[in-house]
Amino acid sequence: MATVTTPRGPRLIQGTQLDLALEGRITEQMRRVAERERLAVEHVRDQVASGRLIIPANVRHPELAPLGIGRATSCKVNANIGTSELGSSVTGELEKLRACIRYGADTVMDLSTGGDLAGVRDAILRHSPLPVGTVPVYECAARLADFRDLEPRLLLEVIEAQAAQGVDFMTIHAGVLRGFLPLAARRITGIVSRGGALLAEWMQTRGEENPFYVHFDAICEICARYDVSISLGDGLRPGCLADASDQAQFAELEVLGRLTRRARERGVQVMVEGPGHVPLNQIAMNVEKEREICDDAPFYVLGPLVTDVAPAYDHITSAIGAAHAAFHGAAMLCYVTPSEHLGLPTLEDVRQGIIAYRIAAHAADVALGRPGARDRDDELSRARYAFDWERQFALALDPEAARRKRAESVGAQGLENAGYCSMCGPRFCAMRIHGSLGRPEDCPRPPDARATAQVET
After folding, report:
1. 194 near 214, Cβ under 8 Å?
2. Dihedral of CA 164/27/266/275: which sign?
3. How confident is the model at residue 445, as a pLDDT?
4. Mean pLDDT of 393-419
5. H-helix segments, 329-420
6. What are the sequence ranges of the domains in the chain?
């Protein structure tokens, strides 16, 4: 424990990344984020101090490779894994974790609701260099035969236990208030957040206010001790296009803005979760609203899905919205898999979801001109023009899929290394034709445009 002086006065704590940044100190985590993002470390520190950048790094997670989440850094991708009541396996979840690492997820959330929750979570933490997030209300529900029996003591006990294990960020559904429930009743799909629905039932039955909201300061004290970042959950996020940007969603967002400021005052890093289903033309407005209401806290969006008519393809419908949200300022994208709305994701679903979202995040990074974002694209383009297939595979977001697709196309003919693909073949390949013209200096000079114009006249 140490006394850290902040603009709000001295505080006796270990010193969260936010506290230390406000003190003007530069931590090892800040240095590693700066190196990864090609940013000045002083800039990273100042962004953390302002709350616009968070570094989820629980002091009990030594396996962690720190990263930054905020508009100043590259857009991050989160992947969800976890057991359900219908399927539970530590081995299976570790396999999913390895897939998340392999295919490039930046963070991972353990959303387990079945089996040995503490054991699964500990196994994930001890094997994960990625920041690990949880949703504490799930464990609370799993421990109770009836969630309506939840007492604040259990809520705080679960949060403390998860923090002590090493969880780096937690979704806290503190913005769903009793007064907002009639607003959600007007919707087509009502409340689609599991945490939001559980708390709505609890409040309706007990006639009491949301315990996450009532005990928010106590939650912050726990998080500050371990430097757990709070991800303020959007329990009233829209579950279909018709419910997007409604009164319930924005009433909750106003509460999340107030809670953002309360958490920061207690030294806790905060990001805010965003809507799930939003028409394309409303995405920019949603991002701008969050930035304004929540003092530019990093925005962590699920999707958003831009159409409701594509079950089994929602990794595509949501990646379209994700790229748009990231371009307008979302800091992290929560992936959606082809199993969304249909079932528990398989290992293949996890792969497809991560790749779809890495494409979305990368597209936004390139468009925003983030340092080094386009380097890989340019290098792959050079390899493509040179018909260097192995280099193309190495640079691809999913090398295995690219190699497999190439083999399916020409492998049977033994032409894997040929200087063309099966779309155009050797005679009609534009790059082969253009490449045969030689170097620029070998090409004939183009006619003088003015002389050509005079002849035509």
Report:
1. no
2. negative
3. 60
4. 82
5. 347-367, 375-385, 389-395, 399-410
6. 57-367, 375-442
Q: What are phi and psi of 75, to 5 degrees?
A: -70, 135
**H/E segment holding residue 184:** helix 181-184
343 within 8 A of 332, measured Cβ to Cβ: no
Average pLDDT over residues 65-84: 96
pLDDT value of residue 411? 64
CA dihedral (438, 439, 443, 446) positive or negative: positive
Reply yes or no on whether the pLDDT at 175 is more than 60: yes
Omega before 304 within 30 of 0, i.e. cis: yes
Across residues 400-407, what is the average pLDDT? 91
Q: State pLDDT tens for residues 267-323.
A: 999 999 999 999 999 999 999 999 999 999 999 999 999 999 999 999 999 999 999
Both tokens assigned to 252: 């909750």
Does this model's pTM top 0.85? My answer is yes
346 DSSP 8-state letter: -
d(CA 303, CA 389): 33
Between the CA atoms of 233, 239, 243 and 245, what dihedral angle is there, to the nearest 10 degrees?
A: 40
Distance CA 53, CA 140 (A): 30
Assign 417 a pLDDT band (cuts: 50, 70, 90).
low
d(CA 167, CA 171): 11
Residue 22 · residue 5 · CB < 8 Å: no
Q: What residue has token string 């302002």?
A: 50
CA pseudo-torsion sign 248, 254, 257, 258: negative
Rounded to whole angstroms, what are the CA distances from 424 to 387, 388, 429, 430, 433?
Answer: 14, 17, 5, 8, 11
Write down the CATH superfamily of domain 57-367: Radical SAM ThiC family, central domain (3.20.20.540)
Whole-angstrom Cα distance, residue 354 to residue 334? 9
CA atoms within 13 A on the CB side of 218: 14
Q: Is the pLDDT of residue 453 over 60?
A: no
Other Cβ atoms closer than 10 A to 442: 7
Tell me how far apart the alpha carbons of residues 137 and 415 are, in angstroms, rounded to a whole number: 55
Contact 129, 64 (CB under 8 A): yes
- Taken as a whole, the chain contains a residue count of 457
> Quick one: CA dihedral 41, 42, 48, 52, positive or negative?
negative
Query: What is the C-alpha to C-alpha distance for residues 343 and 353, in angstroms, rounded to an integer?
Result: 14
CB 249 within 8 Å of CB 276:
no
Task: Tell me the pLDDT band of 423, cut-offs 50, 70 and 90.
Answer: confident
Burial of 186: CB neighbours in 10 Å, binned 0-12, 13-18, 19+: exposed
pLDDT score recorded for residue 412: 58
Cα dihedral angle (268, 269, 270, 271), rounded to 10 degrees?
-160
Tell me which amino acid residue 284 is: A
